[in-house]
Amino acid sequence: MNFHLYDHDLSHWSGDCLIACCFAEGSTAALPSALEPLDQAWGGVMAELIQEQAFAAKLGSAVSTRVGSNIKKVVLT
């Protein structure tokens, strides 16, 4: 397994798994602004995952889902 840090336009990234860190904002997680274009390209799947799972980005927590595009799985921590 290889891990890479990626600091470019994420809408063109592809791979097996995207792991993204979110930050607690009140009782729910906040999707980092750098991920908003990618989330929009995927039809809002990350924002929907946060809402549906009531993900709060607390220490040690994570949620994941399959995306079905160039990225097989998304993990939010």
Describe the protein in words.
This protein is an alpha+beta fold and 77 residues long. The chain has one domain. The chain is built from two helices and five strands. It has helices at 36-41, 45-52, and strands at residues 15-20, 23-25, 28-30, 63-66, 71-76. It has a three-stranded mixed beta sheet with strand order 1-5-4, with helices on one face. A two-stranded antiparallel ribbon has the order 2-3. Strand 2 (23-25) and strand 3 form a beta hairpin. The model has no long low-confidence stretch (mean pLDDT 84).
**Which structural class best describes the helix and strand composition?**
alpha+beta
How many individual β-strands?
A: 5
Summed up, the helix count is 2
The biggest sheet, with number of strands, parallel, antiparallel or mixed sense and barrel status, is: 3 strands, mixed
How many separate domains?
1
Mass-distribution shape: globular
Spatial order of the strands forming the largest sheet: 1-5-4
- Stretches where pLDDT is under 50 for at least 5 consecutive residues are none
User: N- to C-terminal separation?
Assistant: 19 Å
Gyration radius from CA atoms, angstroms? 12 Å
User: Portion of residues in helices?
Assistant: 10-25%
* String of helices and strands: EEEHHEE
- Beta content comes to 25-35%
